[in-house]
């Protein structure tokens, strides 16, 4: 088995969930730790040591038996005798009446004592069958005394059957070890028909985990999926998503599963998709996400999109959209994308939105390197908006939404366009906003007239600012290289300012709302593609002409600055 180091992002995510998650998230993270070690993964030594401390802390403080059991399962995979033995012995002494926890503790003890269970003094009261089956999970059969050891599946109690299935799933049992009449596959197939739903669940789990078993060894037909209990549905769907060979049949099972009422079942299906992608799968998953109301399931789907986004463009687009739309999914998106080209894109988009690193307040070295390597030339835009309440209302919110969307949709951008909006700007805020934001482009959207533009006073009513005052502001704020006045009759103001900038755009007469919105999104979209101010202006006019607003296009003026 190849040993693989767990990526830092994933290790950090698991540690975060164990320390901050609710009981369900803690359990899921513990399951992931155990799975990683079973499949040959390893944490870096310092991370592993910290995880062992955290897991032992959970073991001593939790009241949830599932968390207790999974803490023990993790210790059985990655614990050390000095770090965990006291915790395991305490559980063995305290949890006498719970066979599942006792079995997990025995497996942990077998790992810590390297199979020499006779050295563990607190195992004396554990039933021999439980001791053997639990030890088999982490110990070679050659190190255990299996003489006369047999399991009759018709008479054995449910706890013994579950442990036998765990041993098969972990591929720790040789053929016919439990009974001469039952090979591993026969045992699994027979117990798939058991009355106990947990035994049935473990039979499906063993087929998922054991690479020597195939879907033909499953003792439950997929035609029975709808009638099975939710825990069995979850495992069947996880198995089906991974191992059904015929892709059309697999697609049908995935589609059916996405409509099941049980969140547990849908979550199992989404887990199964974490390592699976094939052409056409997106026809189910993207539509499923839009109707899914469980955050647990949406997190897993988001991780699926991110994991395969680098190879499939619609998934990449969806992952980037979710990063912006739903902060709750951010950790899952990073987790899925780690090690792919999409990871860098997510990081860069996240940082450009002004956020910090996922788990700290500083930009981490990996992110800093990614940002530097992918750094684009940028233009900062301050868009000051004013629609006084005693003037005709303007669609400034629509202009802002369309602009944001257009910038996001640009492919293979040549230039970053970073837009900051200042809303309902009062005259006593104008200078402050410009000095605080240090823009390359100063954009005003609102009302104007010959010789002035309109901001607001402290009561929200019209307050005019003269062309001379605007000129003085731009002259004193040297960062401003372009002025865009998307306001009626603003050409006269534009002309007065031209001596202090590279370019000014203004309107000769009254301009309609639709034209103002269309011009803005086209102008900045062109800048994002790397166009000059003049070419962006020409493309914005062409946008108006293409959309039946040629007369409106004639109202815009481009004035070359004197600098």
Which key terms come to mind for this protein?
54% helix, 9% strand, 563 residues, Leucine-rich Repeat Variant, Rossmann fold, alpha/beta, six-stranded mixed β-sheet
Provide an overview of this structure.
β7 and β8 form a beta hairpin. The protein has 563 residues and is of the alpha/beta class. Among the domains are: 1-149, Leucine-rich Repeat Variant (Alpha Horseshoe); 378-560, Rossmann fold (3-Layer(aba) Sandwich). The protein has helices at residues 8-20, 23-38, 45-61, 65-78, 81-94, 99-112, 128-136, 158-169, 184-191, 197-209, 230-243, 247-258, 263-272, 282-291, 295-308, 313-325, 330-337, 341-352, 365-373, 396-409, 430-437, 467-476, 491-497, 513-528, 533-546, 550-553; strands at residues 4-5, 41-42, 378-385, 416-422, 441-446, 448-449, 452-456, 462-466, 482-487, 503-507, 556-560. The chain starts with a strand and ends with a strand. The longest helix has 17 residues, at 45-61.
Distance between the termini: 67 Å
Query: Order of strands across the biggest sheet?
Result: 4-3-5-9-10-11
The counted number of beta strands is: 11
| Low-pLDDT sequence parts | 354-363
Quickly give the structural class: alpha/beta
Fraction in beta strands: 5-15%
Radius of gyration using CA atoms only: 32 Å
Shape: elongated
Helix and strand arrangement:
Elements: E1 4-5, H1 8-20, H2 23-38, E2 41-42, H3 45-61, H4 65-78, H5 81-94, H6 99-112, H7 128-136, H8 158-169, H9 184-191, H10 197-209, H11 230-243, H12 247-258, H13 263-272, H14 282-291, H15 295-308, H16 313-325, H17 330-337, H18 341-352, H19 365-373, E3 378-385, H20 396-409, E4 416-422, H21 430-437, E5 441-446, E6 448-449, E7 452-456, E8 462-466, H22 467-476, E9 482-487, H23 491-497, E10 503-507, H24 513-528, H25 533-546, H26 550-553, E11 556-560
Helix pairs in contact: 1-2, 1-3, 2-4, 3-4, 4-6, 5-6, 6-7, 7-8, 8-10, 10-11, 11-12, 11-13, 13-15, 15-16, 15-17, 16-18, 17-18, 20-24, 22-23, 24-25
């Amino acid at each position: 088995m190849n040993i693989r180091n767990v990526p830092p992002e994933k290790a950090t995510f698991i540690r975060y969930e164990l320390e901050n998650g609710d009981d369900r998230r803690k359990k899921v993270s513990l399951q992931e730790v155990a799975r990683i070690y079973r499949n040959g993964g390893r944490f870096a030594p310092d991370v592993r040591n910290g995880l062992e401390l955290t897991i032992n802390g959970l073991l001593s403080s939790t009241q949830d038996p599932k968390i207790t059991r999974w803490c023990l399962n993790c210790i059985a995979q990655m614990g050390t005798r000095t770090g965990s033995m006291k915790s395991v012995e305490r559980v063995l002494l305290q949890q006498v009446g719970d066979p599942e926890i006792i079995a997990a503790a025995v497996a942990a003890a077998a790992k810590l004592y390297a199979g020499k269970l006779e050295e563990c003094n607190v195992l004396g009261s554990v039933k021999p069958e439980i001791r053997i089956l639990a030890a088999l999970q982490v110990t070679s059969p050659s190190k255990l005394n299996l003489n006369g050891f047999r399991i009759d599946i018709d008479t054995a109690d449910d706890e013994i059957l579950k442990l036998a299935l765990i041993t098969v799933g972990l591929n720790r049992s040789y053929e016919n070890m439990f009974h001469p009449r039952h090979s591993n596959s026969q045992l699994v197939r027979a117990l798939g028909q058991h009355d106990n739903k947990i035994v049935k669940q473990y039979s499906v789990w063993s087929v998922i985990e054991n690479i020597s078993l195939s879907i033909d060894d499953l003792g439950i037909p997929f035609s029975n999926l709808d009638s099975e209990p939710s825990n069995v549905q979850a495992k069947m769907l996880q198995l089906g998503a991974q191992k059904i060979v015929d892709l059309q049949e697999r697609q049908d099972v995935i589609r059916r599963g996405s409509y099941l009422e049980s969140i547990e079942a849908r979550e199992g299906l989404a887990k199964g998709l974490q390592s699976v992608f094939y052409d056409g799968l997106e026809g189910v998953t993207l539509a499923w996400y839009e109707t899914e109301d469980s955050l647990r399931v949406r997190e897993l789907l988001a991780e699926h999109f991110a994991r395969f986004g680098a190879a499939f463009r619609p998934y990449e687009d969806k992952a980037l959209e979710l990063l912006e739309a739903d902060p709750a999914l951010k950790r899952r998106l990073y987790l899925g994308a780690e090690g792919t080209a999409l990871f860098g894109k997510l990081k860069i988009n996240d940082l450009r939105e002004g956020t910090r690193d996922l788990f700290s307040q500083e930009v981490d070295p990996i992110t800093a390197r990614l940002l530097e390597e992918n750094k684009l030339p940028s233009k900062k835009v301050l868009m000051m908006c004013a629609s006084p309440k005693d003037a005709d209302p303007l669609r400034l919110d629509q202009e802002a939404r369309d602009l944001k969307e257009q910038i996001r949709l640009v492919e293979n951008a040549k230039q970053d366009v970073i837009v900051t909006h200042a809303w309902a700007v009062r005259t006593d805020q104008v200078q402050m906003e410009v000095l605080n934001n240090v823009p390359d482009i100063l954009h005003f959207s609102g009302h104007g007239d010959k010789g002035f533009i309109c901001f607001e006073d402290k009561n929200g009513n019209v307050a005019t600012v003269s062309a001379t005052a605007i000129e003085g502001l731009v002259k004193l704020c040297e960062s401003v290289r372009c002025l865009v006045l998307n306001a009626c009759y603003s050409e006269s103001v534009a002309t007065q300012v031209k001596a202090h900038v590279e370019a000014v755009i203004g309107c000769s007469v009254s301009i309609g709302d639709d034209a103002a919105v269309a011009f803005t999104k086209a102008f900045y979209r062109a800048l994002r593609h790397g166009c000059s101010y003049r070419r962006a202006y020409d493309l914005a006019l062409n946008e108006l002409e293409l959309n039946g607003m040629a007369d409106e296009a004639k109202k815009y003026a481009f004035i070359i600055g004197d600098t």
